């Protein structure tokens, strides 16, 4: 075999293990984002309805939605005090939000129509969903087209714009989406005028927002349109959003800390399991902040647990189903996070120390990002903040600078492979020489 070919094969052999291992790990990480929980009975629901108020709904797809895209607008709309607010889906069954938080929607589409006497909602919020453009989104896109024809104002959050575009509801309009996806949307939906660098774009009967927390600015903008600036400002204050009225710019290209996410996704081969304790009355944004930040980090896996494994009701009445009870999950947990300002839990299993994420003094996502920086690394925390469109001016992050352990793993494998390629042939030749 020619020397050049042997060397080329040796290089391939050296790189094969870390590259293949990294690819397998990365695919497993992304596949886990929308994994469904076990089948369980659905708690009964009897949501209140005030006919004097307009109705706003947050739409969850049959395969779930991004946790912050759904829960942040929900809490802000409720905090405004001006709407009947519900989560709705084609069917009322547990649906996964990113990070492994299972939500039971308040109503199915049919139940919503029955509750409202057939009236279309005033506002429909469309979060990012995992199956944009696929047949599985058909029930959602058909329903949205029907509501839009009856005058419903549509608000997409992040890549929820892709859901609207796939339904044909953005054709001929200006719209925006998350900076990581807007380029592919330009190719997939050329009839839309895609706008880069804006936190939200108002095209009249449709408002679209950029990445994740830009949805807060879009929601407040819609509240201002429907209920006035004072109501919107009060809603912003209620959730601790300090950027209302002067939205900062959004990311328009790949941010500097992006390699940290690649390293985490590819070479965190045994990701730690972080338990997230669901407690009755927890704020929806508090809850979303923990699952969102850790999901974006690609560095660990979150597991929703409750004290007894039973469902919990959040501050404003949403129903969440944990995937385990705390005692049963404890041996597999590396950390236990407790979302919610002022929340305190009683006895926890030996070996676990509850970490109370939220101080109540800052926006919930600031606290979650700071916790990630302390326990993972600053580069990963900054990546999470950038992908969420969370402004970090004045946000101090302390912790290791970089995911060094994950970075060392492929380098070690390459080193071991190089040693094997160089010395194993020599060892073989020596053995053959002694045998002769």
Describe the structure.
It is a single chain. The chain has 436 residues and is an alpha/beta fold. The protein has two domains: 161 residues, Rossmann fold (3-Layer(aba) Sandwich), CATH 3.40.50; 185 residues, Class I glutamine amidotransferase (GATase) domain (Rossmann fold, 3-Layer(aba) Sandwich). 42% of the residues lie in helices and 15% in strands. It contains 14 helices and 18 strands. A seven-stranded mixed sheet has the order 5-2-1-6-7-11-10, sandwiched between helices. The chain has a five-stranded parallel sheet with strand order 16-13-12-17-18. Strands 3-4-15-14 form a four-stranded antiparallel sheet, with no helix packed on it. A hairpin with a 3-residue loop joins strand 3 and strand 4. Helix 2 packs antiparallel against helix 10. The longest helix is centred in the C-terminal third of the chain and has 32 residues. It is globular. About 6% of the residues have low confidence.
């Amino acid at each position: 075999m020619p020397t050049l070919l042997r060397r080329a094969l040796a290089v391939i052999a050296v790189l094969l293990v870390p590259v293949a291992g990294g690819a397998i790990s990365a695919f497993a990480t992304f596949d886990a984002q929308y994994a469904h929980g076990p089948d369980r009975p659905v708690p009964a629901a009897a949501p209140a309805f005030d006919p004097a108020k307009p109705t706003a709904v947050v739409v969850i797809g049959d395969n779930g939605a991004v946790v912050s895209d759904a829960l942040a607008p929900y809490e802000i709309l409720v905090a405004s005090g001006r709407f009947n607010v519900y989560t709705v889906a084609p069917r009322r069954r547990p649906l996964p939000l990113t990070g492994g938080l299972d939500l039971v929607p308040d109503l199915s589409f049919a139940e919503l129509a029955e509750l409202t006497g057939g009236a279309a909602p005033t506002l429909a919020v469309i979060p990012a969903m995992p199956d944009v453009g696929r047949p599985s989104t058909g029930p959602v896109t058909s329903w949205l087209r029907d509501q839009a024809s009856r005058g419903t104002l549509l608000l997409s959050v992040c890549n929820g714009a892709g859901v609207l575009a796939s339904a044909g509801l953005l054709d001929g309009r200006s719209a925006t989406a998350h900076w990581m996806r807007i380029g592919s949307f330009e190719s997939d939906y050329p009839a839309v005028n895609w706008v880069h660098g804006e936190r939200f774009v108002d095209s009249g009967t449709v408002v679209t927002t950029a990445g994740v927390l830009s949805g807060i600015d879009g929601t407040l903008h819609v509240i201002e349109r429907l209920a006035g600036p004072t109501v919107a400002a009060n809603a912003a204050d209620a959730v601790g959003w300090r950027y209302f009225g002067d939205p900062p710019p959004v990311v328009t290209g790949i941010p500097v800390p992006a390699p940290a996410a690649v390293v985490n996704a590819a070479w965190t081969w045994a990701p730690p399991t972080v338990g997230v304790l669901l407690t009755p009355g927890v704020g929806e944004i508090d809850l979303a902040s923990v699952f969102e930040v850790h999901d974006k980090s690609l560095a660990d896996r979150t597991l929703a647990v409750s004290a007894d494994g039973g469902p919990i009701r959040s501050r404003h009445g949403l129903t969440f189903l944990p995937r385990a009870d705390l005692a049963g999950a404890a041996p597999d947990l590396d950390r236990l996070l407790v979302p919610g300002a002022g929340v305190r839990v009683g006895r926890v299993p030996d070996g676990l120390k509850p970490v109370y994420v939220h101080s109540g003094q800052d926006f919930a996502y600031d606290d979650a990002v700071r916790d990630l920086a302390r326990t993972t690394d600053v580069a990963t925390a900054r990546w999470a903040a950038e992908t969420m469109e969370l402004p970090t001016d004045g946000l101090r992050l302390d912790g290791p600078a970089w995911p060094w352990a994950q970075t060392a793993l492929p380098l070690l494998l390459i080193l071991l492979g190089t040693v094997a390629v160089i010395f194993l042939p020599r060892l073989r030749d020596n053995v053959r020489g002694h045998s002769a």
